[in-house]
Amino acid sequence: MTPIQQFKRQLAAQQLLDPEVTVIVAVSTGVDSMALLTLLEQLPSQQRPQLIVAHVNHHLRAQSQTEAAYLTKYCQQHQLTLKLTDWPVRLHPKTGIEAAARQFRYTFFGQLITATQAAAVLTAHHANDQAETYLMKLARGGDLAQLVGIQAARPFYTGQLVRPLLTWSKGQLREYAQAQGVTWYEDATNADVELTRNRLRHRVVPELTQLNPAFLAHVASYEQQLQQLLMAQTEMIRGLLPTVTTQKKQLTVDAWQQLPSSWQLPVLQAWLTQGTDTQFSQLKLGPVAHWLQNSQLPTGRLPLNHDWQLTKATGLVAIQPLKKRVKKLRPVEKNMVDLNQWQKITATQVVGVFEQAALPTSQPFPLTDDDWPLQWRPWQANDLVQLKGGGHQKVRRILIDQKVPVAQRALVQVLVNAHDTVLWVVGHKFSYRQPTTATRTVFLALKHTELKGAHLKR
Ligand SMILES: Nc1ncnc2c1ncn2[C@@H]1O[C@H](COP(=O)(O)OP(=O)(O)OP(=O)(O)O)[C@@H](O)[C@H]1O
Fold first, then answer.
1. Where are the domains of the chain?
2. Given pLDDT bands bounded at 50, 70 and 90, which one contains residue 454?
3. Which of 13, 89, 101, 243 has the fewest CB atoms within 10 Å distance of its CB?
4. Whose CA is nearest to atom 27 of ligand 1?
């Protein structure tokens, strides 16, 4: 299969080879994403999805302006819609700038996909990126599941995040771009990317490729095998869990002990993760398994972390909150919405309900008089959003699906109407509303103030 056929296959697998579908192409003006854009533009018209080009001008170096100007002109000439945003210097943190830039980028992509209802955001991650990620994780260590590299597709806000070039090497992308006469900008920051990645990029990957020219293809193959293995394991665990737990989700120690020993830790890990919404590394579960098996201690308690403990009695083990969690004790703080005013609702989010679109990414939203007053508040366990097809989805499920880290979930705010119905899970999902003659459109807008150096999940 030629690289172009592989590229098409990746798109077809996500149902994106379709002119009825809109995709957002993340273009940095580097060779990888310019090649991606060109590949998409060259698809036959009966297969080519509608393209929206997204670019973040990070204002990290003088060249940023030139790149944004080049892309603006390119999109005009190629009749492509461009969504460009700035990351102003005043918002740059003093440390962790790469991670903060990445967070800003993905938040922007998330807002765009939500606002445009596009099916996917495409980025130009390639086989060399994959190999570097792999080697970094190998060096760092952890559970096998954490070795999973850059995923070809994963849920992202209201659509998918798709990387259709993971089978292409950097060299192939460069050759393709050259052959197509594409202009691109070398990323000057690539020279000083974080030390570990830099060493891998410039020393380790070339060495390994010299050792075996098929090295990158082998990494891609391992990645696929690992994904399949983990999927098989997940399915197996799904089948095993009900055989070792009661209806009240307690673990039956005897049944668990009768599992083949190689399944005990994975099943224990899945049970704990489900019961606490917290990831536990298998590497740290040895003592827990030992405590479960210890027949000298038929009853007792074992703290798992600050929030959770296990209690054991009559051969059954239950997961219990260690103390009443602050979240539950605190009365829910609500903030009244001030129409046409920006309001700071978290340390990093400024939001507003406007009569006119305050930002290009503002979301039009139909409201009736009955909805007022609107309020901002933290999300709660029973909050739901309305879906287009008529159903509902739990806010909790949305945050899990969007892989919002547990620690950040508590910070998520929602916009509610006078009846406490959720209209917007800020930064994550809008509730569906059909406009009618009784509704008036307002625009919901979100911008970020200060950014932390958190490393986003790939
Ligand atoms: N300024 C930008 N504007 C739009 N898209 C971008 C920008 N920077 C990067 N991208 C997109 O992200 C892809 C990966 O870029 P890069 O390798 O620089 O990011 P990374 O931070 O290392 O990766 P990740 O975002 O997965 O952590 C690019 O090929 C491009 O599709």
1. 3-223, 245-321, 330-448
2. very low
3. 89
4. 458
Asked whether the beta carbons of 266 and 282 are under 8 A apart, the reply is yes
- For all residues of the chain together, what is the average pLDDT? 89
Give SS3 for 367.
strand
Q: DSSP strand E in 214-336: where?
A: 251-252, 300-303, 308-313, 316-321, 335-336
| 3-223 and 245-321: identical CATH topology | no
**Block residue for tokens 């509902």:** 392
Q: Which atom of ligand 1 is nearest to the CA of 122?
A: 31
Are the CB atoms for 399 and 442 separated by under 8 Å? no
Longest dimension (CA), the chain: 77
- What pLDDT, on a 0 to 100 scale, did the predictor assign at position 451? 47
Atom of ligand 1 nearest to the CA of 98: 21
Could you tell me if 378 and 414 are in contact, meaning their C-beta atoms sit under 8 angstroms apart? yes
What's the CATH fold of domain 245-321? 3.30.465
Best of 7, 25, 27, 195 for a ligand 1 pocket test (most atoms within 8 Å of beta carbon)? 27
Its ipTM equals 0.96
Q: Label the pairing between strands 335-336 and 343-344.
A: unpaired
